[in-house]
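Re-run with default settings, no changes from the original entry. Doing this only to confirm the output is reproducible before filing.
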Amino acid sequence: MRLAKMHPEDVKAELRKRFATVSAFERRYELPSKSVHDLLRGRASARVEKAIKSVIERPVSEFSKSEGSDVSQTVTSSHRKNAEAR
């Protein structure tokens, strides 16, 4: 079990590589807020552990920015000054 051998900061870093924030990971997998924090502090949760393992076992290259990042899913218009220049 790779997760058990990992330092908590390494687990969080792996989640951030794929989702930008740990909170984004929790939202994506419909986990309660702070559930990763609770797991890493010793509070057992099979559901959270399973979700983390499913992500960590996949290479980073399998994740695209649009899959995990809240920022890339946000549609924004051009800045007003850029719009005026057209």
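Residues 3 and 53 are 7 Å apart (CA to CA). The mean pLDDT is 82.
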